[in-house]
Amino acid sequence: MTLTAEQVRAQLPDLARAAQEVDGVAPLSEQTLLNARHGAPDGESPDGEGPAMVWHDVDGELIAIAVSDASRASYELVVRPDHRRNGYGASLLDLVVNQVSEEGAARVWAHGDLPTARSLATSHGLHVVRELWKMARPVDGEPGIEEPSLPTGFASRRFEPGADDEAWLGVNARAFAHHPEQGRMTLADLRERMDQDWFDPTGLLLIEDVTGERPVLAASHWTKIEPPGAAEGEVYVVAVDPAYQGRGLGRAVTTLGLAHLAAAGVRTIDLYVEGDNAPAIATYRGWGFDKASADVMYAL
Prior knowledge:
The model has no long low-confidence stretch (mean pLDDT 90). The chain has helices at 5-23, 30-37, 88-103, 115-123, 165-175, 187-194, 249-263, 278-286, and strands at residues 53-58, 61-68, 74-79, 107-110, 127-138, 154-158, 204-209, 216-224, 232-240, 268-274, 290-299. It folds into two domains: 5-125, Gcn5-related N-acetyltransferase (GNAT) (Aminopeptidase); 136-292, Aminopeptidase (3-Layer(aba) Sandwich), CATH 3.40.630. Strand 2 and strand 3 (74-79) form a beta hairpin. It has an eleven-stranded mixed β-sheet with strand order 1-2-3-4-11-5-10-9-8-7-6, sandwiched between helices. The protein has eight helices and eleven strands.
């Protein structure tokens, strides 16, 4: 490894784009790219915690990398298309597998579960332990997108950066208390996303309980169009405070977001759901969504 970690982080987005152009699927998650951007100068944090990176480079070009999440519980790997079939992916996966054997924690994501990734994982004795489905529907598909309707005592509005940050984080944390990634979002994580080019506060829709002296945030739907003006929009984060579950807010806030995306001019809407969440999958199918692809986590 002749490149510095700083140089690697600078080249990482280009490597990810090159792989996506060939494979048709992003090889690294949004959170992984954000984590890598703010990693330690040498690729390792001083206390041995936080994101880790190991990579291969040739003539000053980053050609392959394995990047961990903040807790080092999972890794993502990508090899530049014109350098594949040279053993770079296998050598990086060897390092990750050794991490699994020593700590019993590290796992590996295969975004899109492409045949080459599946073959590499199985050759190292890994098996599927988790699936994250991508489901999608055309805006003009059937059934049509519902007209938003709120239960009595609730009102909707747009997110106000700075004023709503803490309240939104509170609802998000409670709604995703048992989620391995989303439930850990911090104020720094939120503001980092708000700094991205795709962030649009008008696309973060809030539902408030307005029956008391002051409004109380009860649910939210964060939509995403990346890049701005793209033909595909995403149901990014839907959260309902557990204290307000059972009042129809999940459906209400979801339809608010779908209607917003349709009005923004996207042609397709997608979302992500755990592959073993049968009730949620059935609900989304009822709204016209079908499975488009899957991200798969492998482990020993």
